[in-house]
Amino acid sequence: MDVVAALRTFLRVAETGSFSNAALDLGLTQPAVSRQISSLEAHYSTRLLHRSTNGLSLTVEGEQMIPMARKVIDAMEALGDTTAAESVTTSGRVRISLPAPLGLHVSERLPALLKRHPRLTVETVFREEPSDLVGEGIDIEVRLGDVSDSSLICRRLGWTTAFLVASPGYVGERGMPGGPDEIAQHDCICYSRGGETRAWVFVNGADQVRAPIAPRMVFNNATAVYRATIAGGGLAILSHILVAEDIASGRLINVLPCLPPARLPITAVYASRRNLPLRVRTVLDFLADAVKEDALMSGAAC
Fold it and tell me: Which positions fall inside the HTH lysR-type domain (predicted)?
């Protein structure tokens, strides 16, 4: 038995939730996938999957196997890269989708990446909402918040840090909210994504506090929210990437500093782990490093 191939099959079954979907992704027949899983279970003398008429589910041993299997697969792929001909060059186009603030952070670092890889091209789309990766030809998308699509491969990059802010002019005219229950009395500027137009979520120690809002302005782009806030349009929750310097200079005021907005996971998603091109792996690692460089994104959520 090829243990590495069987581990790769096991991971795909766990990711897709069925033998048939894994077989389709791997270019195998369903019986072949089933045989590989059975052989793997026999090899390790343990059951990895519960099989029933309702579908498949991981056993405790199966759940424990997943991170170890990924390490083995990643190590084998890295070995393949190392032993390949040294003349192999990272080349071609990689299309990525990013929320606007993170896109600005990444854009400042892209020239150094392209200098190291002269034949690599990166096309960046700024987008707050999830994309159809396959339909739109997007190789990697960075999403904020939980990823609900179980068919995608996910790589956690870090966590957001944001501030509730307002301009000095707005605060001088309308005052500061005394707490989250007073935010609804203020003009609010927000994104159109998810449920953000209905409530903002803050952290109070180990608890989360929801503050209902009735926004006066709604945008689907963080840069537009930022500009409207600078112009005195009201309160907004914005990434530290956009507002840290403005808070330091006094151009914006950090509102309710003891009650920070809840942090969201930053996750890179892509359609398939199988035969991920070197150009895509290179950009994926670059995105991970770019997030890690920023201490306000690399730290774990509280």
Answer: 1-59
Sole residue written with tokens 């890295």: 78
Q: What is the 3-state secondary structure (H, E, C) of 128-159?
A: CCCCCHHHHCCCEEEEECCCCCCCCEEEEEEE
Which residues partner with 189 through β-bridges?
Answer: 217, 236
Q: Is the separation of the CB atoms in 184 and 212 below 8 Å?
A: yes
Class of the CATH domain delimited by 92-158+264-297 = alpha beta
Query: How many whole angstroms separate alpha carbon 61 and alpha carbon 249?
Result: 54
- Nearest-angstrom CA–CA distance, 242 and 191: 14
pLDDT, one tens digit for every residue, the chain (302 residues): 788 889 989 988 888 888 888 888 778 898 999 999 999 999 999 999 988 877 888 999 999 999 888 888 777 766 655 544 434 578 889 999 999 999 999 999 999 999 999 999 999 999 888 888 888 889 999 999 888 887 888 999 999 999 999 999 999 999 999 999 999 999 999 987 655 668 999 999 889 999 999 899 999 889 999 999 999 999 999 999 999 999 999 999 999 999 999 999 999 999 876 667 889 999 999 999 999 999 999 865 54
Written in H, E and C, the secondary structure of 224-279 is HHHHHHHCCCCEEEEEHHHHHHHHHHCCCEECCCCCCECCCEEEEEECCCCCCCHH
Domains 3-83 and 162-254 share a fold: no
CATH architecture of the domain 3-83 equals Orthogonal Bundle (1.10)
Instruction: In whole angstroms, give the CA distance from residue 266 to residue 268.
Output: 7
Place of tokens 């150094």: 112
Give the residue from 147, 158, 98, 101 showing the smallest Cα distance to 122. 98
| CATH code of the domain made up of 162-254 | 3.40.190.10
